[in-house]
């Protein structure tokens, strides 16, 4: 039973009880409907209160039932809402903590609603590329008012209950209960027990003084802000129907909109990302009940850009941090940067002054390794060179207390070698933050061959606390993200050899939806970083070839924005990428030297060579066990590399195109004499999936 029934005096109380957020799964819907029937049949019951156990009223649909027959088995959410709405006794929703999606739609089907202050109220379906499908677009405008309801539905963002209660003329909440919610709800239910007729939100009018002008204005605004996402405009049209149509006709319009959106690739991609994020937090051989270590104090080695950004994540979560550096000047610079970042947030109104002071009070510094020994977790963020890491980890091994977790922020180096610099390799893990570390959501958790399971469980839990999306990677050069991006960058270089310009490649990638094309990205990160990797590759993997254009660029000292010149030219103090005649000349000469005649290259070819290079390399990663699942790869690229959210990540995009078609494209690319035919041999996993008619997901 996932809802309980009890009678308190003359009031029946139905408590949704389906942890963690009382999702409205089939068993919960059945139990709630049965509770209403019991109350109807009990002559001593005068009214009903519906509430939620634990830390939520209801978070909406039970995501465990998505895409399963249970989601459509009666009573559906529509049927449950009809049972509640048609109850002959008053039904009061007692809302606390979280009331979202189907939970709010259920509450809107009740005759009355009372709420605790601070309850988060939302219809977040738009974030899954959908619209509220159980009457939310029709009832919320009637209960709250057209404009505030449209804002909530189109944004999907939660609003506190007490703020909504202040909206003029609203009938969403009849009362905000400051004290004990159940006592207040039962008292309210007793007060209204004999009032008739029972009020129904569906019988209210959704009114607006000038609906035609308002909705046209809203269409322009919403359309401009959501060009790659069809759901917001569909939400708007459903809300408009609440004003112009009868309730039943509005419900029909809502249903049509919901079913149409379910079929869009954008909604499929957003739903894929939603489930992918939840799947990424699970590690196949690490049970969910694995005990975790306490992390009450963190040490960070290095006060540079990464060290400072990493430290801010923990300060933001209220965890004390001590930063260690070798020189006082470096410490001073690092602290000044942290202060500057926080002060910018204060200035923009994103952070209150007292919060800023609290965070800075948690930060301390030292020049002495002995001072960090009591930390529960230490993260090194020093220069990316194995000898430097060796020196740091040998010192950490000496000073850190037993049971402390020793983490490296390395982006490419062998974590197993780093772990073996210590006598406790089981305590060593990779925590690869992405720059800027205080902003980027992605955290690659690198699992060494000896990393203990409780260490993994601890850092995965900690990632949630510091609001990161953690994805586990095995050990290889570049882990998941950087190993894949190398192939993407190689293709970008080959495209230049064949006749494309940096701006054409970037524009095609950005039109596809990448936040930034490969050459603008190189200029931002620093082209010298890729140069160093290629020099290392020449020693380690002499058979891997690259376009020589990037090396020639670096030989001119054009490292990107930091030098004012890279693939593009930059004006002092500005980040605008200006096409460079120097680069155009360099490319022309390079092609002439190789005897290459530039050819026309379509945007589609550019995009598919870049993206399918990611896909093929990722398939090798999956085969090797470096990545656990294809959706983990998608999370890496959605949260760390600017892949367009509405396309769901490279693996989701490949599934959308169809793996058979991906393989056909790879065969065409392999015939290009200037490309790497060996690389375009489809990975064994892709061949197997195509042969079996399957996809990555």
Structure commentary:
By secondary structure, the chain is an alpha/beta fold. The strands form four sheets. An eight-stranded mixed β-sheet has the order 12-11-10-13-14-15-16-17, with helices on both faces. A six-stranded mixed β-sheet has the order 1-2-3-4-6-9, sandwiched between helices. Helix 9 packs antiparallel against helix 10 and helix 11 (265-280) crosses helix 25 (630-640). The longest helix is centred in the last third of the chain and has 22 residues, at 603-624. The radius of gyration is 29 Å and the shape is globular.
Topology summary:
Elements: E1 3-8, E2 11-16, H1 26-41, E3 47-52, H2 77-85, E4 91-95, E5 98-100, H3 102-109, E6 112-115, E7 120-122, H4 136-144, H5 146-155, E8 159-160, H6 161-164, E9 175-176, H7 181-192, H8 211-225, H9 231-244, H10 247-262, H11 265-280, E10 298-301, H12 305-316, E11 321-324, H13 328-347, H14 353-361, E12 363-366, E13 377-380, H15 386-399, E14 405-408, H16 415-419, E15 428-433, E16 442-446, H17 453-465, E17 469-473, H18 481-498, H19 502-512, H20 518-525, H21 527-540, H22 549-555, E18 568-569, E19 578-579, H23 581-594, H24 603-624, H25 630-640, H26 650-657, H27 659-670, H28 684-691
Parallel strand pairs: 2-3, 3-4, 4-6, 5-7, 6-9, 10-11, 10-13, 11-12, 13-14, 14-15, 16-17
Antiparallel strand pairs: 1-2, 7-8, 15-16, 18-19
Helix pairs in contact: 1-2, 2-3, 3-4, 4-5, 4-9, 5-9, 8-9, 9-10, 11-25, 12-13, 18-24, 19-24, 21-22, 26-27
């Amino acid at each position: 039973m996932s809802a309980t029934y009890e009678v308190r005096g003359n009031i029946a109380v139905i408590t949704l009880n389906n942890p963690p957020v009382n999702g409205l799964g089939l068993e919960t819907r059945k139990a709630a409907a049965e509770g209403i029937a019991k109350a109807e049949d009990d002559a001593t019951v005068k009214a009903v209160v519906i509430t939620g156990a634990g830390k939520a009223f209801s978070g909406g649909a039970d995501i465990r039932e998505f895409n399963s027959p249970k989601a459509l088995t009666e009573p559906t959410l529509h049927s449950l809402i009809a049972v509640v709405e048609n109850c002959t006794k008053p039904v009061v929703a007692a809302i606390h903590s979280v009331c979202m999606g189907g939970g709010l739609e259920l509450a809107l089907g009740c005759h009355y609603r009372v709420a605790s202050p601070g309850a988060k109220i939302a219809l977040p379906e738009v974030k899954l590329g959908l619209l509220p499908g159980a009457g939310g677009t029709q009832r919320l405008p009637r209960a709250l008012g057209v404009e505030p309801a449209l804002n909530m539905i189109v944004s999907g963002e939660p609003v506190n209950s007490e703020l909504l209660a202040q909206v003029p003329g609203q009938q969403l909440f009849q009362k905000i209960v400051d004290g004990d919610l159940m006592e207040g709800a039962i008292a309210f239910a007793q007060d209204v027990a004999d009032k008739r007729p029972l009020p129904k939100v569906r019988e209210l009018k959704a009114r607006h003084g000038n609906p035609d002008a308002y909705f046209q204005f809203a269409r322009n605004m919403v359309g401009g802000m959501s060009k790659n996402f069809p759901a917001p405009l569909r939400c708007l049209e459903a809300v408009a129907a609440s004003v112009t149509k009868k309730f039943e006709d509005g419900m029909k319009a809502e249903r049509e909109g919901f079913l149409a959106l379910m079929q869009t690739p954008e909604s499929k991609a957003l739903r894929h990302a939603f489930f992918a994020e939840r799947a990424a937090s699970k590690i196949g051989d690490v049970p969910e009940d694995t005990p975790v270590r306490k992390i009450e104090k963190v040490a960070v080695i290095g006060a540079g850009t990464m060290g400072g950004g990493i430290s801010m994540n923990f300060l933001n979560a209220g965890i004390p941090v001590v930063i260690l550096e070798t020189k006082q000047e470096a410490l001073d610079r690092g602290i000044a940067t942290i202060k500057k970042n926080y002060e910018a947030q204060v200035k923009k109104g994103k952070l209150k002054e007292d919060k800023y002071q609290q965070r800075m009070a948690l930060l301390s510094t030292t020049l002495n390794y002995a001072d960090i020994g009591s930390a529960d977790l230490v993260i090194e963020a020093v220069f990316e060179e194995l000898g430097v890491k060796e020196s740091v980890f040998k010192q950490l091994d000496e000073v850190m207390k037993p049971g402390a977790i020793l983490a490296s922020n390395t982006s490419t180096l062998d974590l197993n070698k780093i772990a073996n610099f210590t006598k406790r390799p089981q305590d060593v893990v990779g925590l690869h933050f992405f720059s800027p570390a205080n902003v980027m959501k992605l955290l690659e958790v690198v699992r060494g061959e000896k990393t203990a399971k409780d260490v993994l469980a601890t850092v995965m839990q900690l990632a949630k606390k510091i609001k990161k999306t953690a994805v586990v990677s095995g050990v290889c050069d570049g882990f998941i993200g950087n190993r894949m991006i190398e192939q993407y960058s190689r293709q970008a270089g080959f495209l230049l050899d064949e006749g494309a310009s940096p701006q054409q490649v970037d524009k095609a990638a950005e039109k596809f939806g990448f936040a930034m094309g490969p050459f603008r990205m190189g200029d931002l990160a620093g082209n010298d970083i890729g140069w160093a990797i290629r020099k290392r590759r020449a020693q380690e993997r002499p058979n891997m070839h690259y376009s020589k254009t990037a090396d020639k660029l670096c030989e001119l000292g054009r490292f990107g924005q930091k030098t004012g010149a890279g693939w593009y030219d930059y004006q002092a103090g500005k980040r605008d990428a200006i096409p460079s005649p120097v680069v155009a000349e360099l490319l022309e000469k390079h092609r002439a030297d190789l005897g290459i005649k530039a050819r026309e290259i379509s945007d589609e070819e550019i995009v598919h060579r870049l993206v399918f290079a990611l896909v093929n390399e990722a398939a090798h990663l999956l085969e090797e066990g470096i990545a656990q699942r294809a959706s983990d790869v998608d999370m890496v690229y959605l949260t760390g590399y600017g892949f367009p959210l509405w396309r769901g990540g490279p693996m989701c995009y490949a599934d959308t195109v169809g793996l058979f078609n991906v393989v056909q494209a790879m065969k065409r690319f392999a015939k290009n004499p200037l490309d790497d035919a060996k690389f375009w041999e489809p990975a064994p996993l892709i061949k197997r999936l195509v042969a079996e008619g399957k996809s990555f997901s």
